[in-house]
Amino acid sequence: MNINRMRLKGLIIKEFLQIWRDPSSLAIAFVLPVLLLLLFGYGVSLDAKHVPIGWVIDKNTPETQSFSAAFEHSEYFQPHHYNSMTAAQTAMQHRKINAIIRLREDFSRELFKQNSPAIQVIVDGVDANTARLISGYTQGAWSEWLAHLAMVRGISLSKPIEIEHRIWYNSAILSKNFLVPGLIAIIMILIGALLTAMVMAREWERGTLEAMIATPITMIEVLLGKLIPYFVLGMGGMLLSIAMAVFMFDVPLRGSIWVLILCGTLFLLVALGMGLLISIISKNQFVAGQIAIIVTFLPAFILSGFIFDIDSMPIVVQGFTFLVSARYFVAILQTVFLTGNVWAVIVPNAAALLLLVIFFFRMALKKAPQRLE
Questions:
Q1: Which 3 state secondary structure label does DSSP give 249?
Q2: For helices 176-197 and 257-282, angle between their N-to-C axes, nearest 10 degrees
Q3: Element holding 51 (H helix, E strand)
Q4: How many CA atoms lie within 13 A of 122 on its CB side?
Q5: H or E, element range at 271
Q6: C-beta neighbour count of 171 within 10 angstroms
Q7: What pLDDT does residue 118 have?
Q8: What values do phi and psi take at 49, rounded to 5?
Q9: Which uninterrupted H or E stretch holds 77?
């Protein structure tokens, strides 16, 4: 592989001048990450807090007041009191509350009796995540309150199993702690693919590619001259995203920043290679941009494990996820940020990214025109 450094340097300078004259590339590299991180970091949250729930207490007693207080002082719920079940059900139908907790008139009397449903919980199941939170919190609050009341009264409460909850790596259960690292993968593949998806197509449209082929410049020099400037921009966008994740959103970075940069380099090269291949094949900037979004952003968003758990997908869909490069980088990001340098996760996923880098660049070189037709 014979590469003339002077020619390559000239091509790189030419591409940087093109970037300077067309600020859209700078906007994609630096403005887009900021906008997406702000949108997802502050605007999108899977944490259910201040969930409106309705309370129907048939008869006020010290016990009913004590139990309802467990919800009054919780940051997760916003209680609304109703005089009847009819009023509470109407409020739920109008989506004013997400659940109804009813304490019957005989609540205090039936507390410790076997098989006596002293509490009724009705949950709106439209939002499954919120419904599970309400059900889980209610069961936990009920068990803890019942045990505390039994201890105060000196009553023996039969509890065959004692459950102790431990949450590792994201103990506060904050959705931003796994959304923001995963979003870095989405940003990088979008930046990488969009930056390079139109560079060769632009040369096709302007007719300048034929002029370059007629010169002593080799195609490998042309591809490297296109790739290196956008690689620099992409790495700048990645470092900006990591800095925002750590310093703006307080996401813990428990692993090595150098491991993250190395793996990010591999992933960015995959994205650039995909964009370059799309640009070579399409020969049209508009078409190249549309294809880049469809084949990179959408699979990365849906099939990478960024939001949707891969293990919960059908087996056939899980098989397709192995073709999505973002799947491997999302696993690395979430591991390095929240767990640390777990090599059993990092090494196999980094190896998969390396194989994809080789594949896409070989395909781009193979499909690139070598001579005038």
A1: coil
A2: 40
A3: strand 51-57
A4: 15
A5: helix 257-282
A6: 9
A7: 65
A8: -130, 150
A9: strand 77-82
Q: What is the pLDDT of residues 325-339, one digit of tens each?
A: 999 999 999 899 988
Which candidate, 20, 127, 105, 122, places its Cα nearest to that of 57? 105
The span from the CA of 57 to the CA of 73, in Å, is 18
Provide CATH code, domain 51-153.
Answer: 3.40.190.10
Q: Which two tokens stand for residue 297?
A: 């952003």
Q: State how far the Cα of 242 lies from the Cα of 136, in Å rounded to an integer.
A: 34
What contacts 151, CB < 8 A, 6 or more positions away?
A: none
Residue 354: the pLDDT is 95
Q: What is the pLDDT of residues 62-77, one digit of tens each?
A: 878 888 887 877 777 8
Burial 248-277 (b: 16+ CB within 10 A, else e): ebebeeebeeebbeebbbbbbbbbbbbbbb
CA dihedral for 202, 204, 207, 210, sign (positive or negative): positive
Q: Tokens 């992409």, residue?
A: 234
Distance CA 339, CA 177 (A): 11
The 10s digit of each residue's pLDDT in 151-181 is 777 666 555 445 555 667 776 667 778 788 8
* Residues listed for the chain: 373
Check residue 157 and give its pLDDT: 56
Structure tokens given for 38: 């702000």
Residue holding tokens 């990365």? 300
Mean pLDDT for the chain? Answer: 81
Mean pLDDT of 198-206: 73
- pLDDT single digits (tens) 39-59: 877 776 666 678 888 888 888
> How far is the C-alpha of 95 from the C-alpha of 351, rounded, in Å?
49
Report domain extents, the chain.
Answer: 5-44+174-367, 51-153
Output phi, psi for 26, to 5 deg. Answer: -65, -35
Rounded Cα–Cα distance for residues 10 and 75 (Å)? 60
Dihedral over alpha carbons 99, 104, 110, 112 (to 10 degrees): 20
